[in-house]
Design a protein that fits this description.
Structural class: alpha+beta
Strand order of the largest sheet: 2-3-1-4
Strand content: 25-35%
CATH topology: Alpha-Beta Plaits
Radius of gyration: 13 Å
Number of domains: 1
Helix content: 25-40%
Largest sheet: 4 strands, antiparallel
Number of helices: 2
Order of helices and strands: EHEEHE
């Protein structure tokens, strides 16, 4: 069963470019993870201060491995955000 995660991110206006740079650094690492089918960052055309992450995993084990890596890396985007990230997970 494939897992798709959709993350809506609203960065602080002064931190948006830094957050995009951080994702540009991290995405190649994430794409090399076992079971990662895709990992992309999008910026809204209507609201440049709205970002969307779409990632796609082979199964729950691959997704869980990714979450473990994020934790091991100590990723914390709080300083970049104007509010909490909105995360939704789907399976197919």
């Amino acid at each position: 069963m494939s897992i798709r995660r959709i993350i809506k991110i609203e960065p602080k206006p002064t931190q948006r470019d830094r957050l995009i740079e951080e994702f540009d650094r991290l995405i190649p690492i994430f794409r090399k993870e076992p079971g990662c089918q895709d990992y992309e960052l999008f910026q809204s055309l209507d609201n440049p201060n709205l970002l969307l992450v779409l990632d796609y995993w082979d199964d729950w084990d691959a997704y869980g491995g990714h979450l473990k890596l994020e934790q091991e890396m100590g990723l914390d985007f709080t300083e970049f955000l104007s509010g909490p990230m909105h995360v939704e997970k789907y399976e197919s």
